[in-house]
Design brief:
By secondary structure, the chain is an all-alpha fold. It has one domain. It contains three helices and no strands.
């Protein structure tokens, strides 16, 4: 039973690595996702405006 527990327990030391490096990587991931979300929002806004303009053209 103790051998089973040892196998399941993750090793904390090497997995953590350099904390500063981890912070930089995490911040880069967050920035990338944030920029992607902003671009998606902007694209959707443009598409909505185009669709509204087309509806106004056909209605008017």
């Amino acid at each position: 039973m103790t051998e089973e527990k040892k196998k399941r327990r993750p090793k904390a030391g090497p997995a953590l690595g350099n904390i500063d490096e981890t912070k930089v990587v995490a911040q880069a991931i967050i920035d990338t996702q944030l920029n992607a979300a902003r671009e998606k929002t902007e694209r959707l806004k443009q598409l909505r405006l185009q669709r509204e303009a087309q509806q106004n053209d056909t209605a008017g």
